[in-house]
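Issue 218. Parser rejects a valid record. Input:
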Amino acid sequence: MTLINQVREDLKKLAKLAANLSEAHTSAIFLRTGLLASGTQGLSSSETGQSEAPQSIELVALQSLSTATARDCRMQVGSGLLGWVAQHARPIHVAPFDLDSSTLGLYTEREPLKSLVAVPIPMPVEGQDPRDAAASCAGVLMCDSRKAFSFTKIQVKLLEDIALQVSRLLFWSLCKPETTGGESSWESFRFKLDQLGDAIGADSVEIIRVTVESFALIEKEHGLSAAVQQSEQFVRLAQQALPPHFPLLRLPNGEILIALDNMMGAFFQHKLRTLASHVSTASRPFSIAAMSFSARAPRTQGVDLDFILQQRPNPVRSSAKNTNTKAVGGTRA
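Output the parser choked on:
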């Protein structure tokens, strides 16, 4: 099951929980159109506070006793009760509900609804508390009832808590997928690199670029699966050896980038050689080449990764020898 499908299943469970807690006739979760399909890209602009106002919301999870619900439902932001909640990020509680149920855009036939409550789902934003009143809206959690009484304050509060859990599910599933895996995305690596530069100073950042030199030879003699398996084992060990604030990224070409404090550069270069020796076997020697670069970019530019990697590598700072690895200094070939 893919990550997005798993998120959809979890959203269905949260919709069912909302229905049970509020004794609702129907419980529905609407999210900004395309949010699940776009994944991290759909939230990347939100993390920088530059997200555009959503134009529509779509039904992503439903729990209902009705047989007349529209399974493929989408509505414009600002239109109708649910569109108003999505636009203003404020809850509504309508009791008695004396409108036609068709105005909700959720039912294909008339339903004798008596009350309705809808709460906003906060947009998951890096570094922002979803409970902040200034938080933008990622969607709407709605519950309605055919019973002739309004939802209680406790029920409304529980629905707001569920909406908060939906927001956190989106954050950890779509914004932070790298926390469940051994490798980070490019955006995450750049973000953590900037954080490291802010913490220790851009001039103190060192970038280590590692190439698996033996990959082609291992593939030739033992097959692609063996080469990939051995390389991934090395990456996992390297990730485990690094403190969490030193980011690691595996590039599409197989190379590995590591950002760290230059005071620990020599130590980790030696550590990488040790890990390569650990991965290496008599039948499958594993070798790497490592180059280190210093953040010599102007201070006004922060940690400019492209600028750094275009400079000459640092001289080799360790005399430790290993037949399976080598550190490269001087001018790159």
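Fixed in the parser; the record now loads. The chain is about 40% helix and 20% strand.
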